[in-house]
Amino acid sequence: MRIGIDIDGTLTDIEKFQLDFGSKFFSEYNKFIVNPNGYESAEVFNVDDKLDNKFWDKYYFDYLKNEPIRRFAHEIIKKLKDEGNEIYIITARRGGNTISDEENKNLTKAWLDKNDVKYEKLIFSPEEKLNTCLENKIDIMVEDKPTNINIISTKIPVICINAGYNQHCKGNNIYRAYSWYDVYHKIKNII
């Protein structure tokens, strides 16, 4: 089976990162958490794109390099590979004002290596990942972004990594998981 796995919010806890680092950064501008269930940091703190970009300019490099992997993620991915599954890391990560696309790709590869994440292919996809999943014959996707969960699940099963911002994602082909061992359990019960 080909398993697609997102990075941000799936292998990392971007929700916690945005709440923690966003609270620190935006408090300097008298901006505080107004929507803890927002997907983007701009929604969480109700700030404009200019201020949100300043936040990511300050923290993106450190996030790419040092954000911890979710507990047991690499262990479950190894287990899935050992059982004969193919792992495709599918991310919409891009460079920005302070990091080029090439540096972003290199930092992402280094982070996956550092965290012992084994995979067949690393794909830098557009934000909307359904076509990428279909082109790569993905059988099941592990994802946290609400729009991707809802769109991808129209064609293939999606394991939804539980977060405040994706609670409304429900329906056919959507299976909510609360930990990486729960991801494994859901995958084993879907196939």
Compact description:
This protein has two domains: about 130 residues, 3-Layer(aba) Sandwich (Rossmann fold); about 55 residues, no CATH class. About 45% of the residues lie in helices and about 15% in strands.
Please characterize this protein's 3D structure.
35% of the residues are buried. This protein is globular. It is an alpha/beta fold. The protein has two domains: 2-12 and 68-190, 3-Layer(aba) Sandwich (Rossmann fold), CATH 3.40.50.1000; 14-66, no CATH class. Strands 3-2-1-4-5-6 form a six-stranded parallel β-sheet, sandwiched between helices. Helices cover 45% and strands 14% of the residues.
* Spatial strand arrangement across the major sheet: 3-2-1-4-5-6
**Helix coverage percent:** 40-55%
CATH 4th-level superfamily of the largest domain: HAD superfamily/HAD-like
Taking all Cα atoms into account, the compactness measure Rg is 16 Å
Overall 3D shape: globular
Characterize the biggest β-sheet. 6 strands, parallel
What do the pLDDT scores average to? 97
The number of helical elements comes to: 8
Measured by DSSP, the beta-strand proportion falls in: 5-15%
Second-tier CATH architecture of the largest domain: 3-Layer(aba) Sandwich
Unreliable stretches (pLDDT < 50, length at least 5) are: none
Q: Any idea of the CATH topology of the largest domain? A: Rossmann fold
Instruction: Count the E strands.
Output: 6
